[in-house]
Design goal:
The chain has 234 residues and is mostly helical. The chain has 8 helices and 4 strands; from the N terminus they run ααααβββααβαα. It is 71% helix and 4% strand. The strands form 2 sheets. The protein has a two-stranded antiparallel ribbon. The protein is globular, with a radius of gyration of 18 Å.
Length: 234
């Protein structure tokens, strides 16, 4: 496998470091409230509070950067940009429709805890869609490189839906990034399967995957899932 360049190494290292910090804060149940009572220097308290305030959006930004850099290596920078723009635009449109009308996910609304809002949707949500769908695609292509397009899309959509199934309790109960009107509906998971499957079926670039041993898709999905589980059960 071709060696990563300095930018790739820097972003991957930053993602791992910030993920470890996220796990520590999550498992330790560290919140702005209890940090305020610690006997520590003021600058350190302010730093920790900034981490708590902006840590989750920053983690998504780092995951997004690693996902895009990986896609650019596997395909080309031009193809990766085109794919990324399509996923971000489509997911932003669907999420805006969902937040305004309740279709197709169910009735919910976003809070301001997951980054600045663009209309009614946090800016991090389309980036998160890109992270999940793109890495699911590469995981499927690494594990089963000779699947037909429809089977690949179905398996990738199943992986995306499973990821959302693990994410939902953490995002809604622990973090309250968004709030459902009456619990997490089945329509949310159906919509995730259908939308991610359609994106992968009709828009995913060529089957070519140059470096099947690149660990970033597994690591990005696996580490974030670990944080979700830690937050839910720690």
């Amino acid at each position: 496998m071709k060696k990563w360049n300095r930018l790739e190494k820097a972003f991957f290292g930053a993602f791992l470091f910030w993920s470890v910090m996220g796990l520590i804060f999550t498992i330790g149940h560290i919140t702005p409230g209890n940090v305020a009572g610690w006997t520590i220097p003021a600058w350190l308290r302010q730093f920790i509070q900034l981490c708590l305030q902006y840590g989750d959006p920053l983690l998504i930004l780092l995951a997004f950067a690693n996902t895009h850099l990986h896609a650019a290596r596997q395909w080309s920078p031009k193809v990766a940009r085109r794919w990324g723009l399509m996923v971000v635009a489509c997911s932003f449109g669907v999420e805006t429709l969902g937040a305004l009308t309740g279709f197709p996910f169910g009735v919910y609304h976003y809070t301001d805890r997951f980054g600045p809002l663009l209309g009614v949707v946090p800016m991090t949500i389309p980036l998160a869609w890109h992270v999940v769908v793109t890495n699911a695609l590469f995981v499927v292509r690494m594990a089963a490189p000779y699947l037909g397009r429809l089977k690949e899309a179905a398996l990738g959509a199943l992986l995306c839906t499973g990821y959302d199934f693990i994410l939902e309790p953490f995002a809604t109960t622990v973090k309250r990034y968004w709030i459902w009107s009456s619990g997490i509906p089945l329509s949310n998971f159906v919509a995730w399967f259908v939308i991610s499957g359609l994106l992968l079926w009709f828009l995913a670039p060529t089957h070519e995957t140059r470096f099947r041993r690149d660990p970033r898709p597994w690591v990005v999905l696996g580490v974030t899932v670990l944080i979700f589980l830690a937050g839910r059960w720690a």
